[in-house]
Amino acid sequence: MKLFRTSSLLVFLSLGLSAADFHPISSISSSTSGSDLYLVNNLIQGPGSGFEATEPHNSIGGGSTSTWVTNAPNGGGDYFANGVADPVLIIDLGADRGLSEISTWGYANSNTNGGREFSLRFATSTEGTGGFGNSITYSPSFQAAFSATTRDSNSFSQNVTARYVELIFTDNWRNGQGGTPGGDRVGLGEIAFEYTVPPTDPLLKVDNSFNLDLDGSIQTFNLEVSNLGATQNLTLSKLSFGGPNSSSFLVLSLPGNIIPSSSGVIQFSFNPTGITGAVNASLDFETNDATQPSPSVALSGFIHDPRISAPSFFDLGNFEIGAGPETDSVTINNLGGGQ
User: Fold this and answer.
1) Per the count of CB atoms within 10 A, which of 94, 231, 248, 280 is most buried?
2) Of 20, 10, 92, 28, nearest to 52 (Cα)?
């Protein structure tokens, strides 16, 4: 019986020690550092210090040694009134990291000074802190949870590879928790980024169908292809067309290596000579995405050729009584490309 109890205890402890992995954070700065009430470095104490190292990763401690909060520029009034600049945090992860979420912990449960609405921008090691939004245009916005105890994780809609993260608070919880006082400052308990490996890397994103808006002339089209992976470049090769009207299409250009969290364009042309009515084909190619090695994009459209164009209204003007017959003309055009 004693051995059974010991084994059960070990199983229990093993289950209880499950935990998420988080990226190390090298440093953090705030645009309000010269007047902050609590230091911004309190936000990056990390697992085991700022928050529990095991699930559910609740916060550890609070107050001046565990949280960050600004001063109160408007006295007891709303922090964001009277043109006060939004507080900005800049986080340095030390190297380019694959990011898919941001975790925050609230400032305090006793007041509404906690940051609420915030947006993010990113920059790579090469770009530095002066390059936010340059190569990485993705800029999500989130609402941070109020609780100063529990972890709030907000997932990104795309993977990002960046070293620097800019976080801008645009509102706090003032008037957002019933009669709870506060809102004259902006604060937070902790910031972290969970380390997650995408299921596939590189990861192709492309629409499985493409509608051709055809006007009967020779046209050029752009098909966007994205790499949602975190570390590996996406490559395309062996592009060809299939289907009933494949001979009317021609590849003009294709992207080179598509870096993680970026997109490229396949450009192709369509020549409608001898075709009228429905157009159907497929764009086929190969990739180094192990889950989508041979994608096919359905191409479809409709050609009206010949295609008449005539005014829907014609003004005959004014005629004097007894003026006799009058003549005028109406222009009718053929907008088709070949018939």
Assistant:
1) 248
2) 20
Q: What angle do CA 10, 12, 18 make, to 5 degrees?
A: 105
Domains within the chain, CATH numbers bracketed: 18-192 (2.60.120.260), 204-303 (2.60.40.10)
Beta bridge partners of 251: 268
Of 280, 221, 269, the C-alpha closest to 246 is 280
pLDDT digits (tens, 9 = 90+) for 213-252: 998 899 999 999 999 887 899 999 999 999 999 999 999 9
Contact, 281 vs 242, CB < 8 A? yes
Whole-number Å distance between alpha carbons of 326 and 323: 8
Q: Find out whether 149 and 51 touch, Cβ atoms under 8 Å.
A: no
Q: What is the pLDDT of residues 41-96, one digit of tens each?
A: 999 999 999 999 999 999 998 999 999 999 999 999 999 999 999 999 999 999 98
Phi-psi region at 157: left, alpha or beta (left = phi > 0; alpha = psi -120 to 50): alpha
- Say how far apart CA 279 and CA 243 lie, in whole Å: 10
